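Section 4.2 – Deliverable D4.2 (structural model, holo form)

The reporting period included a commitment to supply a predicted holo structure for the target in complex with thiamine diphosphate. Inputs used:
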Amino acid sequence: MSTPSESLVTDRNAISPAKLRSFLRRMITIREFEHLGEREFRNGLIRGYYHSYAGQEAVGVGFIEAMDLKRDYIVDHYRDHGHCLTVGISPASIYAELFGRRGGVSKGKGGSMHMYSLEKHFLGGDGIVGGGISVATGVGLALKRMGAGGLCVCFFGDGALDTGTFHESLNMASLWDVPIVYVCINNQFSMGTRLDRHSSLTQLVDRAAGYGMATEQIDGQDIGLTLASAERIFATVRERQRPVFVEALTYRYQGHGIHDKPHNYRTAAEEEPWIHRDPILLLSQRLMDEKIMTQEQIESMRQEIVAELEASVEEAKRSPLPDAGELFEDVTL
Ligand SMILES: Cc1ncc(C[n+]2csc(CCOP(=O)(O)OP(=O)(O)O)c2C)c(N)n1
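Output (structure tokens):
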């Protein structure tokens, strides 16, 4: 079983106080968004599944911050709420999507796993494990042919490495020099199955290296490190027009989904070192150490965010359900 990756600490860049504060705001927004979303699931407003991004915030915020979303694109997996928030999709339209309302980012027809915004260059979550990887590879190839210097970032979990499409896609990306960054968010579990029970190699970088591309394992808990890694990797991909595979080590705080009980297959003692390196805690500590924010200011920021999110929940509730007549709009039959 992996433990948090303090040994990977390498290049913690200087980041301006304003930027650090905005990272904290974004990460707390994701965490609190998920808390309220799970509450509304229990209240019956959300049907189906709920996959929380809590604990993984520094990966999405760091990587997306380093992107140039005027020319780059994201293809996501199903645990997509945190990434949607980070690209700037409003919390109200994400909640509305979760509630199946017309005001949702996918007009209420996609739900939790199928958020999509062409405007934000966010080409979707995907309920099929590994389903986005081949799409992303095609997007990366298209971006290369368009010649504007764009790249594609593809997020997926460790479980996706066991799918055929992962291997086919990485092979083609390497063969065709596709400018893509495959970001494997290794949160140690594929549903209730821990990494060493589903993967023949537990250093996931080794599984990608066979396709002749550069690979990197990074600490996914510290926003300073994820940002620095992402900036460096994106610069290399743009310059060399070659794919890179990244394994970001992190931890999924909740069960796989809302119905899952993680203590059926892991212990509180095992969770403890990860919670000790919680990404929000680490950033809060940095802000306090650098005398940028006090504990009280951080708590008041959190309360302000919760109030804003509560207002978004209410706004989403006011959005109507789609009409039955809209069922076949925006879909290919
Ligand atoms: C092709 C396919 N097989 C199986 C499933 C069922 N399934 C849903 S989530 C999941 C685990 C995925 O784990 P991982 O890729 O590590 O993502 P994480 O949940 O950790 O974010 C599985 C097996 C699926 N949705 N699609």
